[in-house]
């Protein structure tokens, strides 16, 4: 097992160095074939205890559309 680089993750497939790559979808590469889904993960929304969505058992994408998102964790 190897880690695919963030830049050019499909290079190993194209060069014949690896036979299979597990990656996030969608993959839209005309020279590659996307096979069956190997596993699926549920999404998790993490919020502070006093956030308006904290008491809910589920939240739609639309509900969190206007929420502030932390994008640079290095700034914390």
Q: Order of SSEs, N→C?
A: H
Q: Structural class of the secondary elements? A: little secondary structure
Count of β-strands: 0
Would you identify the regions where 5 or more consecutive residues have pLDDT less than 50? Answer: none
Distance between the termini: 33 Å
What can be said about the biggest beta sheet? Answer: none
> How would you sum up the global shape?
elongated
Q: Summarize model confidence as the mean pLDDT.
A: 82
Return Rg in Å: 18 Å
Helical amount: under 10%
Question: Helix count?
Answer: 1
Strand content: under 5%
Indicate the topology:
Blueprint: H1 11-15
Description:
The protein has 76 residues and is low in regular secondary structure. It contains one helix and no strands. The chain has one helix spanning 11-15. It is elongated and about 50 Å long. The chain starts with 10 loop residues before the first helix and ends in a 61-residue tail after the last helix. The model has no long low-confidence stretch (mean pLDDT 82).
Please supply descriptive tags for the structure shown above.
single chain; 76 residues; little secondary structure; 7% helix; elongated
